[in-house]
Amino acid sequence: MSYSSRPLPPHLRHPSASSVSNGSGQSPVLLARIKEKQLELENLRQLRDLSAGLAGQMQILEEKLATLADGTEGTAVMSNWHNVLRAIHMASTAMPKLGVEDRAQTGDDAVKQDPAVPLPQTLVRIPTQQVPSLQQAKSAEGYD
């Protein structure tokens, strides 16, 4: 596609240069529109600057929230220790205790070897997410 090489009329050749040179000859509507566009451009620049500042503040807020989330995880772990220690205490108090007289009569070695003395329950946490995969692995070993 070729462009025509017709010369442009003189009033269309350099509209920006002609508007600067004869600013008084322009219509007031065009001058008002130019002022309006300049104000709009200035407002858009201010909006850009404010948006950049807001983006920076949001970045700082994100970092602070990440720190806060890490702190709450640590707090949750610390608050859980109370429950763990309480469970251990409950397990140890549920176990029958030998009196001082019983220890003197039987001796500590006899108590350690006596299978009738119940031991405390073992506290173990088993992850339930791995149970199906472990069952499949055991069943696969059984078929081999």
Description of the structure:
- 72% of the residues lie in helices and 0% in strands.
- The radius of gyration is 42 Å and the shape is elongated.
- 0% of the residues are buried.
- The chain contains six helices and no strands.
- It holds the Pfam family DASH_Dad2.
For the biggest sheet, the summary is:
none
List segments where confidence is low: pLDDT < 50 over at least 5 consecutive residues.
Answer: 17-21
Rg to the nearest angstrom?
A: 42 Å
**What is the residue-mean pLDDT, rounded to a whole number?**
74
- Helical segment tally? 6
Q: Give the beta-strand count.
A: 0
Helical content, roughly? over 70%
Bulk shape: elongated
Structural class: mainly alpha
Distance between the termini: 76 Å
Element-by-element helix/strand order: HHHHHH
Beta content comes to under 5%
Pfam family, one: DASH_Dad2
Organism: Cryomyces minteri
Subcellular location: Chromosome, Centromere, Kinetochore; Cytoplasm, Cytoskeleton, Spindle; Nucleus
Protein name: DASH complex subunit DAD2
Could you give the topology of this structure?
Layout lengths: L9 H4 L1 H7 L6 H67 L5 H7 L1 H6 L17 H13 L1
Keywords for this structure?
single chain, 144 residues, mainly alpha, 6 helices, 72% helix, centromere, mitosis, cell cycle
Please provide a brief summary of the model:
Helices cover 72% and strands 0% of the residues. The chain has 144 residues and is mainly alpha-helical.
